[in-house]
Automatic annotation (TrEMBL):
Residues 41-123 form the D-glutamate N-acetyltransferase-like N-terminal domain. It comes from the Bacteria. PANTHER family: DUF1611 DOMAIN-CONTAINING PROTEIN (PTHR40690:SF1), GLL3100 PROTEIN (PTHR40690). Pfam families: DUF1611, DUF1611_N. This is Putative NAD-dependent epimerase/dehydratase family protein. InterPro entries: DgcN-like, DgcN-like_C, DgcN-like_N, P-loop_NTPase. Residues 129-327 form the D-glutamate N-acetyltransferase-like C-terminal domain.
Length: 340
């Protein structure tokens, strides 16, 4: 799958920033690929890049309209279809991370065929996966786990990849969600894999590596989330992580989209170890990553210091304060880590 930049980011009529997290992730990590954004009336998200029409974006050289929306069930909204068709008619390809294939809508399929444009369904992989085997394989792996969905699991491993590479360490980001695939160019949207093959798909994403090499595996969902825990468990068993980082958003009281209360960080640590031991008995936590954007800077520092004292682990906001403390802990706990 070759998705060609520059991108025109399509936000549709999303009700909040989290509903456009795919678009935000791409802009945050591949800003130079993003030419502008197109929004429908009622859209409550703004990527901070130029608003432009499909026609103007095409004239400026946009190659792909990216549907940067994450909604419940990953459905294709009827209100978005005219914009998608206009992009195809204007000479753009269209790429989507939705659960629904773009081509299942006859109008979109017809427009793509008529104008010779490609439809990229990033969640849908043509790769066939085996069932997971659970046999420990060479190399080192770190997985991000969460107290909830959308708490910074992807951002944490991307920040760690950058920090580790800046130190000359041998580390690679492994994408397990549609946004990560857009950013890295490789990976599998694990939540679109048939349940029996989730752990096998993760074993494929992160195959046997050289000793001391780190695969930094993007986490999904939460073991405590009643909607998505099945995906999280398969990911945990397939990743066989040597280390994990707990990701958290401190202002939530219930998990996103449901009424269940948020688990504590300690509960996540304990259950991750208990379940992770099935495929890696040596699994251990190495840090806590917190999205502190709702807190003032001093309030955030005080909160993080309290977490460090309570759990005996480095705690940070990877975007605000960096991940150097967690990288230091990884190096202390895993001296076999090698340079690139």
């Amino acid at each position: 799958m070759q998705i060609n930049p520059p991108y025109l980011m399509f936000l549709g009529d999303v009700p909040d920033k989290l509903a456009a997290k795919t678009a935000y992730g791409i802009v945050d990590w591949r800003r130079d690929w993003c030419l502008g954004q197109v929004r429908l009336p009622g859209c409550k998200a703004d990527l901070g890049i130029p608003d432009m029409s499909v026609k103007d974006a095409a004239a400026k050289g946009a190659k792909t309209l990216v549907v940067g929306i994450v909604n419940a069930g990953g459905v294709l909204n009827e209100a978005w279809i005219p914009t998608i068709i206009e992009a195809l008619e204007s000479g753009m390809d269209v790429a989507s991370g939705l659960h629904i294939r773009l081509g299942t809508d006859e109008r979109i399929a017809t427009a793509a065929q008529k104008h010779g444009r490609a439809l990229h369904d990033v969640r849908m992989s043509d790769q066939r996966f085996a069932t997971g085997k659970g046999t420990k394989r060479p190399g080192l792996r770190l997985l991000t786990v969460g107290t909830d969905c959308s708490v910074g699991k992807k951002y944490t491993v991307l920040a760690m990849e950058k920090a580790m590479r800046d130190r000359g360490l041998d580390a690679d980001f492994r994408a397990t969600g549609q946004t990560g695939v857009f950013i890295s160019g490789r990976g599998v949207a694990i939540d679109a894999v048939v349940a029996d093959f989730i752990s096998g798909a993760v074993e494929w994403i992160s195959p046997a590596g050289s000793p001391g090499h780190w695969d930094l595996v993007e986490g999904q969902g939460s073991l405590f989330h009643p909607s998505f825990s099945g995906v999280t468990m398969g990911l945990l068993h397939g990743a066989q992580p040597d280390a994990f980082v707990v990701c958290h958003e401190p202002t939530r009281t219930t998990m996103r989209g449901v009424q269940h209360p948020l688990p504590t960080i300690q509960e996540v640590i304990d259950l991750t170890i208990q379940c992770g031991k099935l495929t890696n008995p040596a699994i251990k936590p190495v840090g806590i990553s917190v999205n502190t954007q709702a807190l003032g800077e001093e309030e955030a520092k005080t909160y993080l210091a309290g977490l460090e004292k309570e759990h005996g682990l480095p705690a940070t906001d990877p975007i605000r304060f960096g991940v150097e403390g967690i990288v230091d802990r990884v190096l202390a706990d895993f001296p076999a880590t090698k340079t690139a």
